[in-house]
Structures are given as C-alpha cells and as structure tokens.
Amino acid sequence: MIYLDYQATTPLAPEARDAMLRWLDGPEGTGFGNPHSSHKLGRQAAAAIEAARDKVASLFPPGGKVIFTGSATEALNLAIRGSGNKGSVSYSAIEHSAVGDTADAAGKSHVLNVSKEGQCNTAQDMPNDVRMVAVMQVNNEIGTIQPTIDWHRKAKEAGALFLVDAVQAYGKITVTQADMIAISAHKFHGPKGVGALWVRDGVELNEVQTGGGQEHNLRSGTLSPALIAGMGAAAALAKERMEEDAAHTLALWNRAREMFDGWVLNGSEDARWQGNLNIRKDGLDVARLMSECRDIMFSAGSACASGSGRPSHVLKAIGLSDKQAKSSIRLGFGRYTTIDEIETAANAINKAAKEQEQWG
Ligand code: PLP
Predict the structure, then answer these.
(1) Domain of residue 301, CATH code
(2) Which of 304, 348, 350, 356 is catalytic?
(3) Which atom of ligand 1 is nearest to 185's Cα?
(4) For the chain, how many helices (H) and strands (E)?
(5) Co-location of 195 and 81 in the same domain
(6) Is the same domain home to 227 and 351?
(7) Ligand 1: does its nearest atom lie under 6 Å from the Cβ of 179?
(8) Residue 309's pLDDT is what?
(9) Residue 205 backbone zone (phi > 0: left; psi -120 to 50: alpha; other: beta)
(10) Over the stretch 259-278, which tens digit does the pLDDT of each residue have?
(11) What is the CA radius of gyration of the chain?
C-alpha cells in the first residue's frame, strides 16, 4: 500500500501517539482524569492540556489564545457564527465547505473570485457591509498559497475581521497574520477529533455551544487530554522539522513532476505547497483508474467532494469544465513518503492511464 492522500489526513507521528498513551492509560491507570476536576488526577490532566496549548500556540503569531475544539470545522463554525451576523461574510470561491456552507447558513455572504491558477487576489470589491473576510492559507484541493497578508490589510481597511483556514498550512509553512485561524491536528500528523481556533487578543466572540463554559466560555464540553497531548506533540515536532519536512516534500514534488510528464497541472506552479499535486489528463476515467490502482491511496478531486459524484467546486472555480474536473486526480505526500513510493505509484498510474488511452 502506498499512501498519497496527505490532504485528506496524515499518518499519526509516533511521537504524537506516545504522548497520547499517557492520557489513555497512565502509570497504574491514572491517565483518565477529567481535566476540569480540581483533584490531583484532574489537575495533572489539566497541566498536560496547558503544556500542549503552549506547543500549539508557538506556531501562531504572538498576541492571541488557542481554543481547543473537536475539529477545524467546529473552529470555523465558532469563528463565523460566534462573531455575530450583522453584515456580510466575504469568502474565496475555493474555501472548504466548513467556511462556505457555514457563512451561507449564518447570514449574508459573498464569494470572492479566484484566477485560473487558484489565486484570490485583492483587486476585487467586497460588499459595503462586510463584517468578515475568510481566505484560506493553502488550498486543500490544488495546494495554492493565497496572498493572506494582503487580505489581512484589505479586511482591516474595510473594518472587517479576517479569518484564515490554515488547516493545510499549519506545521508546514509559517502561519499568516489574521484575527482568527482554524487548524486541525490530523492534518499535521496528530490525531483526528481535535482542532483549534486561534483568536487574536481583543477579538470579541460569543459561544456557539452552551454548557459547562470550558475554553474561556467559548467551547463548552470536556476536553480530551489524550487528543490534545497528541496535538501538542505533533505541533512541537512540526515546528522542529519544518525546514527538513519542506525540503523533503520539495524533493518528492520534483520527482513527481518528472514522473507525471504529459499531465496538466491544476493550480499554480509556484505559489503552492509542494505536497499537493493535482493533475489531469483529458478523457481519463478517474473512477476506473482508482480501481485499477487500488493499492495506491490517492484521491479524485477532494476527499470531501469525491464521494458525491459532483465535480469539485475548486476545480470549477479555476475554470475547468465538468469533464476536465472529473479527469483530475490529487496526490498528497510529505514527511513519511519516500521517493521510491512516488516512483512506484507514478509508474502504476501512468501505465493504467496509458492503457485507457490505447484501449478506451
Ligand atoms: N479546511 C480545510 C482546508 C480542510 O482540508 C479540512 C479537512 O479536510 C477542513 C477545513 C475540515 O477539517 P476537520 O476535518 O478538522 O473538520
């Protein structure tokens, strides 16, 4: 099996797994304490959460707080719904549905265009009543890096909050400046079921989920020490290895680009995270390709859209026809991928694609 679906999820780092075990078992079964209890077991679990919070915070800009959530989707809901509904939310056409659908459901919304390369540039109008701008840092389907520094400035000029979905950026590149930033542990070699919203000091938010008042009254619900400890360890590791991981990913990208000669790249050649290769071949039957290469874990479009049978909204937004979008595949790789795996996968995919061309 060769795993090339790093945008859907990443393999759990052994270091993150080790950090979690203490809070599942613990010495003589003492790892299960409720971090909100005031006795010793509870305080130990709470201390582990605070240590992890510091590690997660160290990859964010200074001057804000980390609110743990159950996922990035939950963090984005808290940011969009918790910041009120007076005015419009402007979001880029290639946002994840956790932003787009939430902004549409929460009140007035407006879509910002992207170029053929998938760049959302700031030379476009926003509604006069804009209250929030949401532009992701790295796109999950085509890997483009957005000009978030410019959008931050433009949002401030318009008197709006700036929200960044940094799910595919955190732990890989320096996280941008913003008012709120959402992340998810399983995208940087941490466990599934835990995310966070970073909130700049001074930004007013209301709770979306009522209950015990945990996380500064913003996210009620008992925190999971094991998941959060795993997220903290994954963040610390990502920080330590950021340059090494990026250099390794670039080497994988260069080899993949050579091997997938004759395919068309979707997205930008330069403004991108190199761990994402979204390519197409006219007339390709992707479902058939995937069944012929079933030992290679890759994706048709995005993991979310691929089950639906609908062409991806991201590929449509960059101007691809339905047919072109449906003949696209996404390969995602990174820290634990080897050059050998890229070569083996590329040979198998190219062989299967060529047979389709030859024999129909
Ligand atoms: N935003 C982006 C860019 C994503 O890639 C994903 C997951 O695929 C999400 C948000 C949602 O993250 P989570 O799985 O933590 O809800």
Answers:
(1) 3.90.1150.10
(2) 304
(3) 15
(4) 12, 12
(5) yes
(6) no
(7) no
(8) 67
(9) beta
(10) 999 999 999 999 999 999 99
(11) 21
One-letter amino acid at 233 equals A
Which residue is listed with tokens 């390969």? 331
Whichever domain contains 221, its CATH number is 3.40.640.10
Global pTM reads 0.97
Q: Decide: 306 in ligand 1 pocket, CB within 6 A.
A: no
Do residues 231 and 247 share a domain?
Answer: no
Three-state secondary structure call for residue 277: strand
Provide the angle, in degrees to the nearest 10, between the axes of the packed helices 72-82 and 97-106.
30
Q: Is the pLDDT of residue 360 over 90?
A: no
In the listed set 201, 216, 237, which residue is the last one of a domain according to the structure?
Answer: 237
- Is residue 304 flagged as an active site residue? yes
Is 109 found in the same domain as 73?
yes
The amino acid that residue 324 corresponds to is Q
The reply to whether ligand 1 has any atom less than 6 angstroms from the CB of 324 is no
Considering the domain architecture, whether residues 261 and 221 belong to the same structural domain is answered as no
DSSP per residue, 180-212? EEEEEGGGGTS-SS-EEEEEETT-----SS-SS
Where in the sequence is the domain holding 277, given as residue range(s)? 2-7+241-359
Q: Which of 237, 270, 294 is the last residue of a domain?
A: 237
Give me ligand 1 centre to Cα 184, in Å. 7
Residues 50 and 151 in one domain: yes
Dihedral Cα 225, 3, 118, 106, nearest 10 deg: -40
- Given ligand 1 and candidates 142, 164, 167, 181, which is best to mutate, with the most ligand atoms within 8 Å of its CB? 167
Position in ligand 1 atom list of the atom nearest CA 74: 16
Q: Is residue 172 part of a domain?
A: yes
